[in-house]
Write a structure and sequence with these properties.
five-stranded parallel beta sheet; alpha/beta
Length: 365
């Protein structure tokens, strides 16, 4: 969005204390704007149980807002996060699926709960995501990719609602990460050398398996070799494992790959070898495709099923009223519940995303 298009807009910046959102404030200030800044407070459910960097984050956010003469307000979305994002995550993993909490955090919290509490007073909500937008000849707003293939975050935004996209502003989306760091250094921002956050959105250093264990506990069951039916060992709970997983299973005689989960029998099926065919899939179904922009889906597509710099290629087909992806090549680790994010052939415009509903059908598992 050009400077002249936002000069009279009321802009809210979601300021986390990290380098990306800090440079967002800097970029807007450079255009003569003084947006209001908001720090979304989440943190662990039990503050005394898990280490959290939220106090340092808030200090950094406060310093950046003050540097540019912007007002900073703390918005408590703690309850909404634990009620909505955690509920989504636990329901999916209990059903044997592979959810993505960060994807739903954008829809439900950053552009959801925040909007209900404070964002509705603003024309635009600016974040530090590596993504861009563009308006087509019909006046439709599109989510488009960042020039930094490693940092591009359009896949994490592919489940936001169309009205949320219309209010979204990504001031650093045209930069690559090194450029953002350079701007932060040049501006002497306190967050310039902070490391990128890792792990689940808003939860800092919380380990994902600890997060699952906190709510679901453990439920031991058998680990079986798919091809032979041989008993390999025990797992502590199917929700600790994902299709395609190779590490962290504690099984001897490997490598072993997770290829199937039987929720009814509580059995984890694995396949042995460095590149077993059972770990691959070329055709899979999608359910309830979520359109970011009201437009017909193309036949030839590029797509992602996980956060990587690379785009996969294939085509979409309607089968019995459902969408099916036919990849050009077999893909490793396709798991029901994962989001398949769909782009045009040039992987420029993002059409939206849908959960994978069925996978490995071609291999009979």
């Amino acid at each position: 969005m050009k400077a002249e298009e936002i000069i009279d807009k009321r802009i809210a910046v979601l300021l986390s204390g990290g380098v990306d959102s800090s440079v967002v404030v800097c970029e807007l200030a450079r255009q003569g704007l003084h947006p209001d800044c908001f720090y979304i407070k989440i943190g662990p459910e039990e503050q005394e149980e898990w280490d959290c960097t939220s106090e340092e984050d808030l200090e950094m956010a406060t310093a950046v807002a003050a540097k540019y003469g912007c007002r900073l307000e703390v918005v408590d979305c703690h309850r909404e996060y634990w009620d909505e994002v955690t509920r989504y995550t636990m329901e999916k993993v209990k059903a044997g699926l592979t959810p993505n909490p960060d994807v739903m955090c954008n829809r439900l919290i950053k552009f959801g709960a925040f909007h209900e509490k404070r964002g509705h007073d603003y024309d635009l909500i600016a974040t530090g995501h590596y993504a861009q937008t563009e308006i087509d000849e019909e006046g439709r707003k599109w989510l488009t990719t960042s020039p930094d293939p490693v940092k591009d975050q359009t896949d994490f935004l592919a489940q936001i609602y169309d009205w949320q996209l219309k209010k979204a502003l990504f001031p650093i989306g045209h930069h690559v990460k090194d450029e953002v760091r350079q701007i932060a250094e040049r501006e002497h921002l306190v967050s310039a050398r902070r490391k990128d956050s890792q792990g689940i959105c808003f939860l800092g250093k919380v380990n994902y398996n600890d997060y699952l264990r906190r709510y679901l506990g453990e439920l031991p069951g058998d680990v079986i070799e798919l091809e032979t039916g041989r008993h390999i060992g025990q797992h502590k709970g199917l929700w600790f494992h994902t299709i395609g997983q190779r590490k962290g299973m504690g099984l001897g005689g490997g490598p072993w790959f997770v290829v199937k989960k039987d929720m009814e029998r509580n059995v984890l099926f694995v396949s042995h070898g460095y590149d077993p065919a059972t770990a691959y899939c070329q055709h899979f179904g999608l359910c309830d495709f979520h359109h970011l922009t009201d437009a017909q889906l193309p036949s030839r597509i590029t797509f992602k099923i996980r956060h990587t710099p690379d785009y996969l290629t294939g085509h979409l087909e309607q089968e019995d009223g459902s969408l099916v992806v036919h990849a050009d090549k077999p893909i490793h680790g396709v798991a029901p519940g994962q989001f398949c994010v769909v782009y045009d052939e040039r992987h420029h415009r993002c059409y939206g995303s849908a959960e994978i509903s069925s996978a490995l059908r071609n291999l009979g598992v």
